Amino acid sequence: MGVFALFGMNRRFVKVAAVLAGATLATGLLSGVASAAPLTGAYVHCGAGISAEWCSTATSIPGGTATMSEYSCASYSCSTVLTGTISNGDIVPLHCYTYGDSVGGDNIWILADGNLDGYFPDYYINTGSPADVKAHLYHC
Fold it and tell me: Model pTM?
């Protein structure tokens, strides 16, 4: 089961969102030429039927696809809310961010939105720098 199934999204939405994410990244890079601090994450508005405003893509998944879990808080020591398969490029709805266990030097965790609420390490999502996260999401 891909992450889009975990969040109740259909394949058509994921393909459209992936195209939009690429366009958003390209637009951000072009607009960054005139900006002092361009945003580096690939954010896209999620669209109708998704309660999160922003979505991004999964990235840095070991081997391209892995079984990952979402947690009740921003720590691997918290209870597991859901476990499923996620692949690089899958769309992840983003609700808010908080700080927790460091993963790959990144201590930001994202509260995923959709059919469930669980925290996921930011390290595995293409959100860019901590400044990018703060520019798009509110602190939980």
Answer: 0.63
Q: Cβ of 24: how many Cβ atoms within 10 Å? A: 20
* Of residues 59 and 119, more confidently modeled: 119
Instruction: Give residue 68's domain range.
Output: 3-33+41-139
Number of domains making up the chain = 1
* DSSP state string for 30-71: HHHTSSSS---S--EE--TT-S-SEEEEB---TTSEEEEEEE
- From the CB of residue 108, how many other CB atoms can be counted at a distance below 10 Å? 22
- Letter for the amino acid at 20? L
- The predicted-structure confidence for 6-52, as pLDDT tens digits, reads as follows 444 433 333 333 333 333 333 332 232 222 233 356 777 776 666 66
**Quick one: pLDDT at residue 17?**
37
Rounded CA separation 23/101 (Å): 32
CA 121, CA 79: separation in Å to the nearest integer?
Answer: 14
d(CA 136, CA 72): 22
Q: Which residue has the tokens 């490029």?
A: 89
